[in-house]
Amino acid sequence: MKIADKDEFEKQNVFGTGTPNTAYAKYFIGESYLNPLTKPEDGLHLLNVTFEPGCRNNWHIHHAKSGGGQLLICTAGEGWYQEEGKEPVSLTPGKVIVIPAEVKHWHGAKKDSWFSHIATEMPGEECSNEWCEPVTDEEYNKLG
């Protein structure tokens, strides 16, 4: 369900919006927010990531010698996920996206909806993240 009103979205965003994502803001178009659900030292770092309408992250790749990748669990609002060279996937609460290592992709909110997902890096060897170019307005505006 698309949710344009922030107050209404907050009622649906059960894991909470958190604080402005200043640490990674340069890799996002629009405002995003982070609410850590676990600590990195817990072994699996889970973050609730919230995107304002129209916000998306840059294309990026999760590298790993073995294993690795990213897991997204959509929790509120509506968003998009897209792998390079593939059609975009509509994201709604309950949708789970498993992103293998070495796959260039991006994710974020739809133009007219707030969006949240839980994100975690999958366990692997020698994992790193490479941030690439922004998703252009032209690419993004083609989406429904």
UniProtKB/TrEMBL annotation:
CDD domains: cupin_HNL-like (cd02233). Pfam families: Cupin_2 (PF07883). Signal peptide: none annotated. InterPro entries: Cupin_2, HNL-like_cupin, RmlC-like_jellyroll, RmlC_Cupin_sf. Residues 49-112 form the Cupin type-2 domain. This is Cupin domain protein. It comes from Ruminococcus bromii. The lineage of its organism: Bacteria, Bacillati, Bacillota, Clostridia, Eubacteriales.
